[in-house]
Amino acid sequence: MKLILVRHGQTYSNERGAIDTVIPGASLTELGWSQANDVVADLLTYEPDAIWRSDTLRTEQTATPLATRLGIEPVVRPGLREIAAGSLEGATKESAMREYIGTMRAWIAGELDLRLGGADTGRETVDRFDAVVREIEESGAQRPVIFAHAAIITYWLGVRAQGITEEMRKVHLHNTGIAVVEGTLDTGYHAQRWMHIYKP
């Protein structure tokens, strides 16, 4: 199965640099809506046969142009939502973002029992995303698009995808940025794309 993972478009929280992991969360800005429309052409090249998204307003809005174009009703799962920020929720200070990203990197390095801001552990976070990926695999879809969030996509690929290059690791997943992996949870997923970087 080929998984096409897409970060949502720009939100008002993104615009002011705030950590936003609550439900339903902020809506898309005007730029965010433009991004959601513009990414459709790129996504259509993968010939998607299903759309899944988290239960946030921003993924609902970002998925709408593709869903409308294909006539597909997105499947909504809370397990695809962003990594919970806990006590860091709403913070705009650089130190809070460093703690948020630093904890995620520690999880990728193997410290899965750390809690982020007193909220979820790395193990709990990857398990709930895995559960949805397993459901997608069992649905029979071959090229599903998942609309989710920057940190959870980065983290999940960091622990589940093989073949991630150093060049890929240095590139931040921008709004409506695309990541593509192929495989299954049982056989392992292999990275094929991260933003503008493609594996041969």
From TrEMBL:
Coiled coil: none annotated. This is Histidine phosphatase family protein. PANTHER family: BROAD-SPECIFICITY PHOSPHATASE YOR283W-RELATED, PE-PGRS FAMILY PROTEIN PE_PGRS11. Pfam families: His_Phos_1. CDD domains: HP_PGM_like (cd07067). It comes from the Bacteria. It comes from Arcanobacterium phocisimile. InterPro entries: His_Pase_superF_clade-1, His_PPase_superfam, PGM_Phosphatase. SMART domains: PGAM.
